[in-house]
Amino acid sequence: MLSAVTDYLRYGAGCLLGVVFAVAAVSKLRSRRAFTEFVASLRPMGLAPAARLPLVAGAVAVAEVAVTVLLAVSLGGPLPENPASTVAALGFAGAVALLAVLTGGVAVALRRGVSAPCRCFGVSAAPLGPIHLARNGILLVVAAVGLISVLASPLGSGEAAGLAIAVPAGLVLGALIVAFDDLWFLLAPPARRQ
């Protein structure tokens, strides 16, 4: 039973994070202009010298791609001698590390009073705010739960019915996280949109 539950957590968390990091990476790497805009959005945050911002932005995008690939491979079919556990652990550990860095960057920017637009998923007019810190914190918890689920139990197969719920739930929640800024703008009272 524990093995099935950890499988459902792993699949749900992996799908959620896979969607989030895939969209984030594509939004930054889809064109030279998109990447340049992402680099420009980092400038007001003062997290690195201006000359190093393209390198920082590139490292973020490459890390997002790497996490996406590791999670996608680990969620695929059975692999010889079940290295999917190792791949999944690497994917979730990478997600934890990347989210810790990104959350720290948002926290530093907020402490400095920076109100630059959040370019996590492409073009957005929403300035960084405490809600972005909360979103990243939630994603960090999801990544940690995914990592713990992989470490707690070797990968099993899980029951089809459970996986039929965990996978779509992860995909839908990932899409909601990607649309977070737009949803927050539509649903939050005007005074709380920061």
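(the above was protein one; protein two follows)
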Amino acid sequence: MRVLVVEDEPMLADAIAQWLRDDAHAVDIAHDGGAALERIAVHSYDVVVLDRDLPVVHGDDVCRELVSARADTRVLMLTAAAEVTDRVAGLSLGADDYLAKPFAFPELAARIQSLGRRCRPAAAPVLRRSGVTLDPARHEVFRDGRYLPLSKKEFAVLAELLRADGAAVSAEHLLEKAWDEHADPFTGAVRLTILKLRRKLGDPPLVETVTGVGYRLR
């Protein structure tokens, strides 16, 4: 998934981002509400992890903007205030979930996974097509029972191809979902990852290039 972490404490923001990247998510960071709104205007995020007490633009206002502009983006609000009234206020703004600080990283990751599932049409927890089985929770991929040791980017790209269920997926979409904002769209990163993925999937070939459109899984 593509995740934006909005947190004004740099060390905490970096820690959250690294945890999520280790979970194969593409993660961007913003340290204030104004920077968050700039990124939201440019990129399509599956989940925004939003600190409520932000400088420049308050987290409440960022949440309102998200809710009004992007119905498909889920918001997980973070705050140091753990009172019931604070949680109710956060959810009333339109946040999809609310987590008080301090929190456990595994719980945060699990909540983000749950919110991410709401961004997409209902799908089986384990993705299957053409003999390929991908388990997002276990981060395991098999082809005809053979385990495939994929990198994080290969895993993320394959997951998008499987979710497309045979439809063509553009390189731009793959770049948006599997890389962060620092990725150079002209580096050929998607093409190289597809090449490596094809090699690991083996024969007969499964990933097909659709000229002028992108890639699809047979």
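Reviewer note on protein two: The first strand starts at residue 2 and ends at 6.
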